[in-house]
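#struct-queue
[09:14] JT: dropping the first one here, sequence first, then the structure tokens:
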Amino acid sequence: MLQTLLKDEAKKRGWSIRDLAKAIGTSHSTIIRAMEGELVDLGTIVKIADWMNVRPSTLLNGFGKQDKTVMQIATLVERTPELGKVLEKATDAIQNGKADPNIIDDIVAYANYKLNLSGGSGAKQSRGRSVAGS
């Protein structure tokens, strides 16, 4: 979904990748990676979501089915212990009334996104390519 939204938005506005990156507040190479379906970090997802005025989970919902969420989160937490800490802090904040419960949707969507793009291994995937003029 992220790929499609970025491509559609650039086309609709008649913008280059550099124009899109500048508006979002990130590098053009990061936008290229996102448009090619490669893994981008959570900070970039948040910037894109803020720019599009949507929740991060909206951008990432195409990256995994909800019925597999628990298994995917468990797998990702096993491979990325810092995610467990993030979920724990988010849960505490929600229970103390200091965070919107929808933040869990965002965390789960990002975990699904990361797990799916990394082939289920939790490791970052990279595709060899060269981009002229970068």
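[09:21] JT: and here's the second one, same format:
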Amino acid sequence: MGKVKKLSVSVDEQTLDELRRLVPHLTVSFLVDDALRQQLARAQLTKVLDELEALHPPTPEEKAEGERLWREAVSSSIQVRSRRSPQATVQPSPPSGKRSKTKVKSSSRAS
């Protein structure tokens, strides 16, 4: 890790409470740094993919096939529960013109 810069961030209270409950051994600084690194990696990959697409744009047929495959994958997908966090449910989000991301939902269960 390089030089460290201190900053102030605001986070959703429920998200923070859930993280602290699930991974109490990880610091908020570590979690924020990890999230920023993951976002940076996605942004870099998106940039490369956008550059490749600009050099070799998909044909209308390829684009339609990609959208069909996406709809098929989403419609046939089932919610996945992690063994480590049985309350976390992963669901794909639909394409919105830009590259899609995966959303993680947390469901609360009564104890």
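[09:30] RK: nice, looked through the second one.
[09:31] RK: Confidence is low (pLDDT under 50) at residues 98-111.
[09:31] JT: good to know. The helical segments are 13-22, 28-55, 60-76.
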